Amino acid sequence: MTSKAEAHDDLPKESGPAGGWGSLRSIARITGMSDPSSDALQTLWRQNKPGGFMCASCAWPKPANYRAFEFCENGAKATLWESTKDRCTPDFWNDHTVTELLSWSDHDLEKTGRLTHPLRYDAASDRYVETSWADAFAAIGSALVDLPKDDVVFYSSGHAGLEASYLWALTARLYGNNNLPQSSNMCHETTSVGLTEVIGSPVGTIIWEDLEETDCLFFFGQNPGTNSPRFLHPLKEAKERGAKIVTFNPVREQGLISFVSPQDPVAMITGKETKISNQYHQLRAGTDIAAILGLCKAVIEADDAARETGAAPVIDWPFIEEHTNGFAAFVDFARSQPWAAITSACGLTEEALRDAAQIYMEAERVIGVYGMGLTQHTHGADNIGMLVNFLMLRGNIGKPGAGCCPVRGHSNVQGQRTVGIAEKTALIPMDRLRTLFDFDPPEKDGTHIVDAAEGIIAGRIKATLCLGGNLMRALPETDQLEQHWRAQDLTVMVSTKLNRSHLYPGKAAFILPCLTRGEKDEQASGPQYISVEDSFSMIHGSIGKQEPASTELKSELDIVASIAEVITEPHPKRPWRDWVADYSRVRDLIEATYPDDFKDYNQRLNTPGGFWRGNPARDRIWETDSGKAEFTVPEKLNALGFDDAEGRFTLITMRSNDQFNTTIYGYSDRFRGIEGTRDVLLINEADMQREGLAKGQIVTLVSDADDGISRRLPGLEVIPFDLPLGTIGSYYPECNVLVPLSLHDRTSKTPGSKGVPVKIEKA
Ligand SMILES: Nc1nc2c(c(=O)[nH]1)N[C@H]1C(S)=C(S)[C@@H](COP(=O)(O)OP(=O)(O)OC[C@H]3O[C@@H](n4cnc5c(=O)[nH]c(N)nc54)[C@H](O)[C@@H]3O)O[C@H]1N2
Ligand SMILES: Nc1nc2c(c(=O)[nH]1)N[C@H]1C(S)=C(S)[C@@H](COP(=O)(O)OP(=O)(O)OC[C@H]3O[C@@H](n4cnc5c(=O)[nH]c(N)nc54)[C@H](O)[C@@H]3O)O[C@H]1N2
Ligand SMILES: [Mo]
After folding, report:
1. Which end of the chain has less Cβ packing within 10 Å, N or C?
2. 152-156 and 216-220 as β-strands: parallel, antiparallel, unpaired?
3. Are the beta carbons of 426 and 132 closer than 8 angstroms?
4. 649-762 under CATH 2.40.40.20, yes or no
5. Whose C-alpha lies nearest to ligand 1, atom 16?
6. Mean pLDDT for back-to-back runs of 10 residues, the chain (763 residues)
7. Which keywords has UniProt assigned to this entry (predicted)?
8. Are 406 and 647 contacting, i.e. CB atoms less than 8 angstroms apart?
């Protein structure tokens, strides 16, 4: 149902059709967060609607034809988690030292509530103490002024809006480096690099209308039920239209099996359920290359057969000839790989792969959806290349209802890249920055987050400033980071809640608390909009209306500008205070820097469904070296960085339904039936028997990387689970202690979090 008329209005009446207050309250209840304020409920009602507030959780697009409740259970959780009435004030530190808090869980740390005051670490008492904003900025400025420019890192997690992010990137460059790693370095960097190589676009090619027109979706390693639940609406509608869905995933994820009502307040009342996947293929972790090759081989064989009988071709030959490069080499490779090699690599039968290929061949318009199951592998870019090979066989890129759909993570992770948060100088229009701001931008490429982590461990990086995020938990190689992080001269974290990274203060350390997106951002020219870009490259305005959690909070943009003011010289072309006073002036700068993407930015800010910044690949314009879309031949049949060995398992590090990355809302992964704990090892029963393990037994996972480093995660309860042989699962972020920093995608350096070699030790 759509309800445009109500979008800008207050909450619906108590007894309105789809539930009004009642349903909002029930949504709040199922999130397990008691007694939300009416301010928070108001925010939920305005969530993801034009003129409203854009969910700070995932990057799933916000349709123009929105529903009464344009949020999901997990988006509601994110909003209510931020809107908590709990406060972590400076008094909290009267009772706790940093050392003591190290024994607290991630959940308990964030549960202390919203941070209310700027804080400085006091080494003598091992506590954070209240400081003034002015003193904090002055101290940050004097610490940075003495450091070699290359030794300072400006990290951002994908939360902050386009305006603050643009200024963050500018700040780093004015300071003197391109050290702008982002959370996507651990996430979809494989897409940014891998997809660009093959189709010349770092982002997906589909938009909302394609979902409405497609007749088939193939899912590889993306879990919409938990990570982008609003995706379930178009999936349900597609199914009702007769579209088919085929899934490749080692884990049987509930959201891809059937759409169960709790995600949707309307269906929650009617109790209707829709079957999602027509076929579900549980391949071994890290073996999508083999599985997709099998699909391609079946298509090629079907085309051969059609040629012999004079039937219509199966392959889209005009597309191949006009638009692609490397087809012959790819076909040779596919023909040269025997079915037995393919099936033994992925653990699926030839029949299963042929059945899936049959659905593909019967469909005119196919979308390939993927997530971390493809990107977080050492040969992740090869995974993406194979998926693109598969789509291109039948011309499924750049036509209505078809395309490539990487599902992004953080709500503005893609947008931050669009406005200059990038360590690679080639991606940045430096000449425009030079003219606009009258400086010489640094020419050297900056640091990727994996390089930054290596630099911290080696003592090379001296300061890390974080615009959001929680690197101590999000990065691999936890033990080493914990040992070396504190040796830095300066750590600065712009945060909303306490997290584990705060417990590793540098020699000087500051926590700078900021407004959330749902909160009123009042500046000299009035209340401010910010904007974000979603997974379909749509830009949306967002305005917060809730009362801020504390009068001391500053907006992210203000904090960024204040840091810039203390580390750069005053200059008439950089009127930081004027920009803070009126964010539309920053949007003008973004438009001046990226005129094609952001034409008429301020005027189009509240376009329903967002405004599209375009994507040449969607129009079959390939911005690759050859000017064509590239078929690629993978190096091997799996995406893993290791071979099979006795006792070695492939660990996938999983998200539960009760977390957003390192923010742990609670201990209920209800779609997987795991309650009350996160310390679990999910394993196939046959593997359990072979290893001599009993249900409920406590075990230790041990790194089985061939680098001689001891990495251990004890205390995991064995749970028999429907997984392929040799693939086991346990939760992220806890498992990061097992992931070597060197285990990453070869081209993009995205950590291989879905293919970690481990052994199981009893006890
Ligand atoms: N509620 C909630 N929403 C979120 C997040 C969250 O933590 N919680 N995180 C946000 C962020 S930053 C991101 S990047 C996205 C992440 O969203 P997703 O991309 O969905 O990430 P994951 O849940 O880590 O893994 C996706 C799926 O890959 C499967 N998988 C693992 N290994 C393989 C493999 O080798 N092959 C295949 N085919 N599948 C595999 C897993 O079983 C899982 O179902 O979600 C965003 N949204
Ligand atoms: N093993 C393993 N490791 C992984 C992954 C995996 O699947 N497996 N996934 C990877 C992925 S996809 C990602 S994206 C990274 C995530 O890495 P990060 O983005 O670094 O981590 P988050 O958990 O999203 O950050 C949470 C913190 O952000 C702060 N925060 C929340 N909202 C705001 C806000 O509005 N403004 C500001 N300034 N701060 C805010 C809060 O203090 C909160 O504690 O982790 C990666 N690490
Ligand atoms: Mo992510």
Report:
1. C
2. unpaired
3. no
4. yes
5. 409
6. 35 34 51 69 82 87 78 82 93 98 97 97 98 98 96 97 98 98 97 97 95 97 92 90 97 85 50 82 98 98 98 98 98 98 98 98 98 98 98 98 97 95 95 98 97 98 98 98 98 98 98 97 98 94 95 98 96 98 98 97 93 95 97 98 96 95 92 94 98 98 95 98 98 98 97 98 90
7. 4Fe-4S, Iron, Iron-sulfur, Metal-binding, Molybdenum, Oxidoreductase
8. no
For residue 723, the model assigns a pLDDT of 98
Query: What is the pLDDT, as a whole number, of residue 397?
Result: 98
Residues 163, 591 contacting (CB under 8 angstroms):
no
Find the helix or strand (DSSP H, E) in which 220 lies.
Answer: strand 216-220
Q: Name the β-bridge partners of 718.
A: 681
Helix/strand/coil for 389: helix
Pocket test of ligand 1: the residue of 370, 475, 739, 754 to mutate, having most ligand atoms within 8 Å of its CB, is 754
- E strands within 496-565? 508-513, 522-523, 526-527, 530-533, 538-542
How many whole angstroms from 107 Cα to the centroid of ligand 2? 14
Q: Which atom of ligand 2 is nearest to the CA of 736?
A: 1
Cis amide prior to 148 (ω within 30 degrees):
no
CATH assignment of 189-407, among 3.30.1360.120, 3.20.20.30, 3.30.559.10, 3.40.228.10 = 3.40.228.10
Residue 51 pLDDT: 82
The whole-angstrom separation of Cα 117 and Cα 92 is 11
Ligand 1 atom, smallest distance to 256 CA: 44
Q: Residue for token digits 């033994």?
A: 344
State the pLDDT at residue 763: 77
**DSSP symbols for 657-703:** TTEETTEE--SEEGGGTEES-S-EEEE-HHHHHHHT--TT-EEEEEE
- Helix 339-346 to helix 288-309 angle, to the nearest 10 degrees? 150
Q: Can you tell me the distance from the alpha carbon of 69 to that of 28, in angstroms, rounded to the nearest whole number? A: 12
Going by the DSSP 8-state scheme, the letter that residue 344 receives in this structure is H
Q: What pLDDT shows up at residue 272?
A: 62
Cβ of 186 closer than 6 Å to ligand 2, yes or no, is yes
Q: What residue ranges of the chain are covered by domains with CATH 3.40.228.10?
A: 189-407
Residues pairing with 659 in the sheet: 664
Rounded-to-integer distance, Cα 460 and Cα 458, Å: 6
Indicate the CATH number for domain 91-183+412-612.
Answer: 3.40.50.740
pLDDT of residue 426: 93
Say which residue the tokens 């109790």 belong to: 271
Cβ of 347 closer than 6 Å to ligand 1, yes or no, is: no
Helix (H) or strand (E) holding 218: strand 216-220
For residue 10, what pLDDT is reported?
45
**Residue nearest (by alpha carbon) to ligand 2 atom 21:** 469
Domain with CATH 2.40.40.20 in the chain: 649-762
**Cα 733 to ligand 1 centroid, rounded to whole Å:** 13
CA 86 to chain centre: 27
